[in-house]
Amino acid sequence: MADDTSRLKKYSEIPIGGIIEKAGNSEEYLTGGWRAMRPVHIPEKCINCMICWVVCPDCCVKGKDGNFSHFDYSHCKGCGLCAANCPTKAIVMKPESEFKD
Ligand code: SF4
Ligand code: SF4
Predict the structure, then answer these.
(1) Distance, CA 28 to ligand 2 centroid (Å)?
(2) How far apart are CA 31 and CA 53, in angstroms?
(3) Which CATH number characterizes residue 65's domain?
(4) What is the pLDDT along the chain (101 residues), one digit of tens a residue?
(5) Is residue 57 domain-resident?
(6) Is the residue at 7 inside a domain?
(7) FRET pair for 54, CA 20 to 30 Å: which of 10, 39, 60, 96?
(8) Residue 22 CA to ligand 2 centre (angstroms)
């Protein structure tokens, strides 16, 4: 069952004009549910250049101590930019149907 943040709103619940009443609320929308392809990191190939972090339009590449840490799959939309720009092919895009979570 969908939680309250992923449920589509009824027309009567949307503010008139579609205005955004609360700034900075985009993080509340779990856009990872839109994803058809999932980026998967291959640590053995990664040189921690962090180009994937630079190019991700949704800030879904997370780093720790200057190195690649993980993907934020709750918000990653699966655009594939990180994989396309990785110089060592350390990110592969896989169909969501291959995963159970
Ligand atoms: S772009 Fe590729 S090599 Fe560079 S940090 Fe990201 S996964 Fe690692
Ligand atoms: S697939 Fe797109 S949204 Fe997801 S981590 Fe890569 S660049 Fe970011």
Answers:
(1) 18
(2) 18
(3) 3.30.70.20
(4) 445 666 788 889 888 988 888 887 777 788 898 899 999 999 999 999 999 999 999 999 999 999 999 999 999 999 999 999 999 999 999 999 999 87
(5) yes
(6) no
(7) 96
(8) 25
* Helix runs in 8-101, H state only: 51-55, 81-85
Tokens of 61: 């590449």
Q: How many CA atoms lie within 13 A of 32 on its CB side?
A: 16
Domain tally, the chain: 1
Query: Taking CB atoms and a 6 Å cutoff, what residues make up the pocket around ligand 1?
Result: 41, 46-52, 68, 86, 88, 90-91
Tokens of 52: 């994937």
pLDDT value of position 1: 46
Domain enclosing residue 91, as ranges:
44-101
Domain-located, residue 25 = no
Domain membership of residue 70 (yes or no) is: yes
Pull the structure tokens for residue 88. Answer: 């060592």
* 32 Cβ inside 6 Å of ligand 2: no
